[in-house]
Each structure stands twice: as structure tokens, then as C-alpha cells.
Amino acid sequence: MTSMNPTLRQPSAYLPVAMSLVALALVLGYVAIFGVTHEADEGAAAHIWQLLMVLQVPIIAFFAIKYFPRQPRQALLVLALQIVAALAACAPVFFLKL
Fold first, then answer.
1. 39-54 pLDDT, tens per residue?
2. Cα separation of 68 and 96, whole Å?
3. Which residue has the higher pLDDT, 1 or 37?
4. Cβ-proximal residues to 78 (8 Å cutoff; 6+ apart), any chain
5. Residues near 96 by Cβ (< 8 Å), separated by ≥ 6?
6. Deepest in the core among 19, 41, 43, 62, taking most CB within 10 A?
7. Is the distance from CB of 72 to CB of 4 less than 8 angstroms?
8. Closest by alpha carbon to 22, among 96, 98, 86, 94?
9. What is the C-alpha to C-alpha distance for residues 68 and 3, in angstroms, rounded to an integer?
10. What is the pTM of this model?
């Protein structure tokens, strides 16, 4: 069985995961400080979260286009990790209706 480490060390592999974790920390930090608030105007935290989530898309697409033909199994595992991280960042927003 081949190791996923060389593929995961590529910036296009770990950047989306890191961005998702930052987005998750941003939401959890905001809720911890300000609580669950429903405002008419979105604040800076919401805009930063949106940017972090949207900017992952081209990075993930680049990763998939570059590495999936070369190493399909490893690329699929990294893509699954990226998707799980993105869903983890979206979960608090969805469940808390932020």
C-alpha cells in the first residue's frame, strides 16, 4: 500500500483543509464570543468565512485535475479529506442557522 504523505504535502492538497479548519475556528470563535446572533447585516466574520470557503474551490479543482490522473487512489483520499473538512466548517453554520 502506498503512502498518502507525498501527495498530502502538496500545497493544493493541504491548503483547502487548512482553510476549512480556519473557517471552522472562525465560526466557533465567533459563537463563543458573541453567541448565536441573527443580524440583518452579515458581519466581517461571515464574509471571511464565505471567502475561505469559496477560495477553496479553485484550489481543489487544480488538485483534482493535476493529481487524479497521476495517482487516483491517493488523490481520492485527499479529496475525501478536503470534502470532510469543508463539511465540518459548514456544519455549525447550517445547524445554528447563522
1. 777 889 999 999 999 9
2. 35
3. 37
4. 4, 7, 8, 13, 63, 67
5. 31, 36
6. 19
7. no
8. 86
9. 15
10. 0.89
Those residues whose C-beta lies under 8 Å from the C-beta of residue 8, and which sit 6 or more positions away, are: 14, 78, 81
Using DSSP's 3-state secondary structure scheme, residue 41 falls into coil
Residues 6+ apart with CB under 8 A from 44: none
Residue with cell 466574520: 45
- Quick check: 15 and 74 in contact, CB under 8 A? no
Other C-beta atoms within 10 Å of 52: how many? 20
How far is the C-alpha of 12 from the C-alpha of 75, rounded, in Å? 11
- Half-sphere exposure of residue 37: CA atoms within 13 angstroms, side-chain side: 13
Work out the mean pLDDT of the chain and round it to a whole number: 92
pLDDT digits (tens, 9 = 90+) for 65-91: 999 999 999 999 999 999 999 999 999
State the residue for C-alpha cell 475561505: 52
Q: Do 67 and 74 contact (CB within 8 A), yes or no?
A: yes
